[in-house]
C-alpha cells in the first residue's frame, strides 16, 4: 500500500486508475482467464484491503489479508502460500502491478510447470512474475527471511524451468511514468489478452 505522499498521491497502488479501472483489476481479469478454480488475492489490511476486494468483485477471488505488507513483497507471497489448501500440486504467483502480462503468458507458464520444478517467466533476460512454485517448495517459501524481491532464493538452479516471454509485457507500475506507459501499451479492449 502506498502511503500519503506516495507517487500516486496517497492512493494505494492496486487502486490507481488505469484505463478507467483499478490497476489490480487488469491483472486479476487476465489471471482469472487462465481457468484456475482456486484464486487468491492478497490484500492489505483495513480500508485499502476492503477497496481492493471490492475492485475484484465478480472475479471469484478469495481474499487473504497480509497483516504486515510493509515487510516487503515476500510477505505477500508467504500470506498466499499459508492460505493455500493442502493437496495442491503447486500455485502460480502473480503481481497486481504488472497489467501487461498476457493470458498467453499465464498459459505458457502452466504448460511449463511441473510438480518437481519451479517455473519462472523471463522477459528478454529479466526474470519476473508470474511464477509457478510446486507445493513441496511452500515450506521453504514460508521459511524465507523478509525481502522485497519475492522468492528469488527458490528460483535459482538448474531445476527451474525458464519460460521466455515478450519483453513488452515486463512493466511493473511503481511510478506515474510507468502508469502512463501501461496506459499507452494496454491492448485494445477487443483484442485477445
TrEMBL record:
Keyword Cell division assigned = no
Q: Which GO terms describe its molecular function?
A: nucleotidyltransferase activity
Per UniProt, which keywords does this protein have?
Plasmid
Q: Which residues form a coiled coil?
A: none
Which stretches make up the MobA-like NTP transferase domain? 8-156
Q: What is this protein called?
A: MobA-like NTP transferase domain-containing protein
